[in-house]
Amino acid sequence: MKIFNYSLHRPIARAADAARDAQDWSKAAELYGEFIEKNRNNKKILRYYIQKGNCLKEAGKLKDALETYELAETIDNRNSDLFLQKGHLYKVMGREIDSVRSYQTAFDLDPQNIHAKHELERSNWLITSGILDHSPTSKTKQQHIIWLDVTDFVDYVKVNVSLSGIQRVLLNLVSYIKHFDIPGYKIVPVIPEYGNFRFFAVDTEKFFDLIDIFNAVIIERHMIDTALEAVLSSKKNVSLQDGDIFVVAGAFWIFSHYDLIMHNKNVGVKFGLFIHDLIQVRMPEYVEKAATDAFQIQLSDALDVCDFVLANSEYVAQDVKDYLHVEKNYSLPVEAILLPTELSEKNINASITNRNITDLSSKNYALVVSTIEVRKNHKLLIKIWEQLREEFGENVPYLVFVGKWGWEVEKFRQYIEEQGYIGDWLFVFNGISDAEVEYLYKNCLLSLYPSFAEGFGLPIGESLAYGKPCIASNTTSMPEVGRDFVRYIDPFDVESSYAVVRDTLINRDDLHAWEQRIVNDFKPKTWEQFSREFFTATVKYAELLKDKRATSNSYLPSCTLIAGGSHDILNMARRGEKIITFRSARKSWWYPANHWGAWSQNRRCEIEFISDCCEGEVVDIFLRLHRQSARQSDPIAIADAGTDPHAFRLSEHQQFFKLSGIVRADGVVNIQLLARGKFPGNTPQGGFIGWSGIAYCKQGHEDDTRRTYDALICPGRLPVDLPFESTEPLILE
């Protein structure tokens, strides 16, 4: 009967072939689909799947073509031509790495597949750059890739000719690719387009050329621009695979959202975050409010999709653990990878022509290298030097500041200018070269670093690496950097700090002995050692977590209303509440979260979170949904959480809708949503379904149900029990 049916439907196949030959791709794909549907169980059907996929590709229906090829793969995953055609499709889609992987599979299955061999030979850049270790003549085990985000570095050098500490970290992590040797892994620098949901790998050799410029003595803008253009021109669209690792080691808070990472976690990619400090949320008085708010939102979102955290000091590592314990309702692996104190390999011996700098070499001076901003506490040093000059007059060493002017120092700057200090006994240098900074270090008596708070405190290590004594703050991470080679002060106490500085300056023999001890005994940690520890830890946690369920950290407590807007994050932080949102529960087909919640970007979308219930339990779920405002009949939303589907008519006003669901393994609750009917539009400013709140409880538990309704409805309280709280307290002067 099957043979009879197959022959009976041959006219459909012939019509499909004719449409294909006439390049009527859509018609051909439709006919091939009809033939497949009528002969689905026939083993000879594979080639018609391939033909349908080819026609869909030619018709520009790339996603449908990929779906067709993947269905064909379930029938026979040993067909070389299938993977060849799939490779062609990936190339059209701009997914270069996927295309090479498919071509390699086609070649491995049939070494006589000349087309696959030619495509692999054309992909030489991907192979030589280290992204893939395949070639047509050798079969090597496919390696996982550590995708290192270098976006922060690239954006920074577009407008700067010298590097900050964070960019220096990225530079050295990329440089370490030359020495990386963990079996089964490769490192590839990548520049994601977070807003466009795409990853772009860049040519590693061209990136080496770019970072080499910053290891040179003389750095000019045109040199950076030329090398940067070569890097950006080498970008290749790539897709991440199960077992890969994505790592952000730069300024993670500069990205608009982390949905790209959240989506890739669904396919088994692990995400590691390197955190430099939490000063912006721990000590917001030292940071501009807008920057603090942005950091608070991005920190919450990044941790909610993170698998492990690396930190630049033990202090920051503990701070992250405390943040997770107090502000979140889950834990993550957190490990400190202390930053190095090694100096650059530039071996600078350049001639210094700035006489304002060279004239200082014959003078005694104390050096301060840092951005001049309120957190760095330069004000303390001015007060100390005023006292020193009052006591010792002109015998006091000069004070030298090196750094750009930063935040909240206008009054401080006005004060030192109006007092006439600058150019007398105080010297301020901005934007000088690395060679000039090195010159100042080598010729100073000692360095000072009275910062209120640091994630690490790199200038302390720099001073020691130059063999120079340093007096630094005894707070946060700074004692980790200086250890017992540094003398410490309380940055909040002028008098005790004055005593330490005074005693050091008046006892020059002791100062000289201190310097000699540093020269003899201080052993800087190298960048190579740091990078090795960094990537070893990255692989270690990826391996430990490889069997972990591919999901975000969307742990939502029962009997509680969970919101998802950025304003909700800021309000929870201000009130000292745990920052728990549904943002990482937007499993698929949602626009990025906004100030109130999120819009779905497709008629079908998915919610998934981890409950505190057990597998098999039935829960009542309450979703707060709405649609855009429009003069038309209200469309409906259909929700299915494992029991019977529930339909709700959507309004432009936010409403709670109740449905029931079944808890899956590991406490997971999954909700499939379908938007049915006519909707006003579909943009990030207004998609299909608007989601602004969720709550759930065990079905049939009276107390849990009451608590949940109280959370949703919020019973009124006496005014005395609910005082007004200003978001920004003002002082009447």
List keywords for this structure.
alpha/beta, Rossmann fold, 733 residues, 23 strands, 28 helices, six-stranded parallel β-sheet
Describe this structure in words.
InterPro entries: Glyco_trans_1, TPR-like_helical_dom_sf, TPR_rpt. It holds the Pfam family Glycos_transf_1. This is Glycosyl transferase family 1 domain-containing protein. Residues 361-516 form the Glycosyl transferase family domain. The chain is of the alpha/beta class and 733 residues long. The protein has four domains: 4-123, Tetratricopeptide repeat domain (Serine Threonine Protein Phosphatase 5, Tetratricopeptide repeat, Alpha Horseshoe); 144-336, Rossmann fold, CATH 3.40.50; 355-524, 3-Layer(aba) Sandwich (Rossmann fold), CATH 3.40.50.2000; 560-713, Jelly Rolls. Helix content is 41%, strand content 16%. It has a six-stranded parallel sheet with strand order 2-1-5-6-7-8, sandwiched between helices. Strands 11-10-9-12-13-14 form a six-stranded parallel sheet, sandwiched between helices. Helix 19 crosses helix 24 (494-506). It is globular and about 105 Å long. Mean pLDDT is 90; it is low at 134-141.
